[in-house]
Design goal:
The protein is of the alpha/beta class. It is built from nine helices and nine strands. Bound molecules: nicotinamide-adenine-dinucleotide.
Length: 295
């Protein structure tokens, strides 16, 4: 398969590049920056994806596009820049896919598209665990940009027959976050309370696995539009308390528990339900915070 990976030089992207190359796929990275290390055979096209003409020239000749290029949080750049870069580059990539006849786009969305990841206001979920049917309520530039990307992809699927997959993964523990992760694990092992009710994270290898499986997925015959979104997280949280106890500290009364068996089977299960990815894509998280204890 010929895979074009935007943002392939980034913290998560380089894991996705490595995963696809290791599975024998032909990989092209499209990014503003050259990859610092890439497996042999991976080629590179330099492009600022906010420029439509440049995107049309660079994003072509592929069976599938993985679109990861973005500003990955709203903290280091002004909000309007985060929104503009992320939304315009997602639009340009979709236009390039459409005009250049690329059939599938797998999009790096985020748990923040839900409004419960990076957030300004603590909103109360309608029910838990939060699944792909729960409405999305992002209300800051990054989460909004991620949801707008999904909406564009879903509408391109409906209007132009593109196949779209949106991967809503949680905080990815890449090398960049090593110091923060080590501190979190120290607190967890010491039994100290950890802020927030989510405590979710995911290993970059498990994100890369999801991109690979999404590229290989066959939509059921007759499904229209061919678009699906998936939450992805490690199988347990890094919180010191079980998930329902952590949620109880923030919400009184607790939101409706749609599926009590979910938390009975695994009291530390993430509040974001990843069972659709497991059922539909055959995805399985392979790493938990325990794998990072000696990081
Ligand atoms: N880091 C996380 O925890 C996390 C969680 C959920 C979703 N995501 C999403 O995953 C993706 C990758 O995140 P990351 O943490 O690896 O970010 P990163 O900043 O490490 O990598 C992003 C890459 O995109 C490139 N890029 C940015 N703007 C570009 C443009 N206009 N044209 C061309 N290239 C451009 C950058 O050069 C960089 O190589 C992003 O879409 C992000 O929103 C990240």
């Amino acid at each position: 398969m010929r895979v074009l990976i935007t943002g392939g030089s980034g913290a998560i992207g380089h894991h996705v590049v490595r995963e696809m190359a290791a599975h024998g796929h032909e990989v092209v990275v499209v990014d503003r920056q050259q990859p610092s290390c890439a497996p042999a055979g991976v080629s590179f096209r330099c492009c600022d994806l906010t420029d439509l003409e440049a995107a049309l020239a660079a994003v072509r000749d592929a069976d599938v596009i993985f679109h990861l290029a973005a500003i990955p949080n709203p903290y280091r750049d002004p909000w309007e820049r985060v929104l503009a870069v992320n939304v315009v580059s997602a639009f340009n990539v979709l236009e390039a896919a459409r005009r250049n006849g690329v059939g599938r786009v797998v999009y790096a969305s985020s748990e923040s598209a839900s409004g419960f990841g990076i957030h300004q206001v603590e909103l109360r979920p309608l029910y838990i665990p939060i699944d792909e049917e729960h409405p999305c309520w992002p209300h800051e530039s990054y989460g909004l940009s991620k949801l707008f990307g999904e909406v564009m992809l879903a509408n391109y699927a409906r209007a132009y027959g593109l196949e779209g997959m949106a991967l809503r993964y949680v905080w990815v523990w890449t090398e960049r976050d090593r110091a923060a992760v080590r501190e979190l694990i120290r607190a967890r092992l010491a039994g100290e309370p950890i802020a927030g009710w989510s405590g979710t994270y995911i290993a970059p290898e498990d994100v890369a696995q999801a991109f690979r499986l999404a590229a290989a997925y066959s939509f059921p015959p007759g499904q229209e539009p061919r678009f699906e979104a998936f939450y992805l997280a490690a199988e347990d949280t890094v919180l010191t308390q079980p998930t329902l106890d952590a949620l109880r500290r923030h919400f009184d009364p607790l939101p409706e528990i749609r599926d009590p068996q979910y938390f009975e089977a695994n009291p530390f299960a993430p509040a974001f339900d990843t069972r659709k990815a497991q059922r539909v894509l055959g995805w399985r998280p392979t790493k938990t915070w325990r794998d990072y204890v000696d990081w």
